[in-house]
Design brief:
By secondary structure, this protein is of the alpha/beta class. The protein has helices at 11-21, 33-37, 39-46, 63-84, 103-122, 146-155, 173-186, 201-216, 226-237, and strands at 2-6, 27-31, 51-54, 89-95, 126-131, 133-135, 167-172, 190-193, 197-200, 246-247, 251-253, 256-258, 269-275, 280-285, 291-297, 299-306, 312-318, 323-327, 331-337, 343-349, 361-362. The longest helix is centred in the N-terminal third of the chain and has 22 residues, at 63-84.
Length: 368
């Protein structure tokens, strides 16, 4: 299946690409700004794709510019389909704000009306996917989501403020990505209203503050609720890499030494490994799983690379100075024994390994 994504570098576009990257047997085409500004490139983009997920748009700016820009993006996409005779299934990410009399709301309604008219004319599938408040790792603070803003501020030891203590309906980007693929796979058309989890802004802030408080005390919060896990992983995305490695307090006396490896409100699974000199373990990433690496003996380098990025982050760690690195979601990671003796590592994950749903996607940290 060939799926085109406009706005592929935005929050939802990036997460949709990551979701499809994880073995979903889909070929992804993305649109950037230069492609959108060139009619020929945009025509090439829509040629032979099975579906186009339209996520490109702006949600900040003066009213006239916002409406004009968003509607122009829609017109350009439709014109490219008309020029090439392409009839992809178009999935448009709308918003619950489309009901409001704002420039953003009006542009969302205009988007949907234009796509609906095009699909009726060409007998093509069109899905108007109405989304509540979308959040996820790596969102832009003060732009994408109040969750992004709060997480960024708390991670940087700023004090968030609440302007209006309204009601939110939260949905994570990976849940939206799952739904988008379902819609395309089933050929669903029409309006689809997605449901999220209801929470007040004040409750959200209190929850994030408590997550941060526990984590700063080296306690892993209770992650059995999926929303709590998603919020925790989103918060952690703003800590990496500056927060790590975390040095543990070693309590030593005449008997020897002791340190606390993991403190958690839900047990998860812990395992130990030995690694021969020069051997590398890992080379995979997770989309939900929280995982900790802690070397207890030997010398190692831990390498991480964000999905679709070429930048590699390295941490050198030693059993003589116990430090842990918590793997961020969507970061490919591995650990290499760089010493002359066996490396002993403690690995801890918040969930028990399930071979049928391991949330483990093989990929090499090094790109060459």
């Amino acid at each position: 299946m060939k799926i085109g994504i406009t706005g592929i570098d935005g929050l939802l576009g990036w997460h949709l690409r990551a979701y499809l990257h994880g073995g979903r047997k889909a070929t992804v085409r993305g649109v950037d700004r230069p492609t959108y500004s060139d009619p020929r490139s945009l025509a090439d983009f829509v040629q032979d794709v099975d579906a186009v997920v339209h996520l490109a748009g702006v949600n900040r700016g003066n009213d006239a510019e916002l409406e004009e820009t968003n509607i122009d993006l829609t017109n350009r996409l439709i014109a490219a389909c008309e020029k090439t005779g392409s009839k992809p299934h178009i999935v448009f990410a709308s918003s619950t704000h489309a009901d409001r009399d704002t420039a953003y709301g009006r542009s969302k309604r205009a988007f949907a009306a234009k796509f609906r008219q095009w699909s009726d004319k060409n007998r093509a599938n069109f899905t108007n996917l109405v989304l509540p408040h979308v959040f996820g790792e790596f969102g832009k603070p003060f732009y994408n989501s109040v969750v992004s803003t709060f997480c960024y501020q708390i991670a940087n030891r700023e004090a968030p403020t609440i302007v209006t203590d309204g009601d939110l309906e939260l949905v994570h980007t990976q849940e939206v990505a799952t739904r988008i693929l379902q819609v395309i796979g089933k050929g669903e058309s029409g309006d689809n209203r997605e449901q999220g989890r209801s929470i007040k802004v004040s409750e959200l802030l209190a929850k994030l503050n408590e997550i941060a408080r526990l984590y700063n005390c080296q306690i892993v919060p209770d992650l059995r609720d999926l929303l709590d896990l998603r919020l925790f992983n989103t918060f952690r995305s703003y800590l990496f890499p500056k927060y790590y490695p975390v040095t543990l307090s070693v309590h030593a006396d005449s008997r020897g030494a002791l340190f606390e490896a993991v403190k958690s409100h839900n047990a998860g699974q812990m395992f130990f490994s030995t690694t021969k000199p020069g051997v590398t373990r890992g080379n995979h990433y997770h989309t939900r799983k929280f995982e900790r690496f802690l070397v207890t003996s030997g010398e190692a380098v831990i390498r991480l690379r964000k999905l679709f990025s070429g930048e590699i982050v390295e941490f050198r760690v030693s059993g003589s100075n116990p430090q842990y690195i918590d793997m961020p979601t969507f970061y490919i990671h591995n650990i290499t024994n760089i010493g002359s003796t066996d490396l002993v590592t403690v690995f801890w994950a918040h969930e028990i390994f399930d071979k049928d749903d391991s949330d483990t996607y093989p990929e090499s940290v090094t790109t060459s």
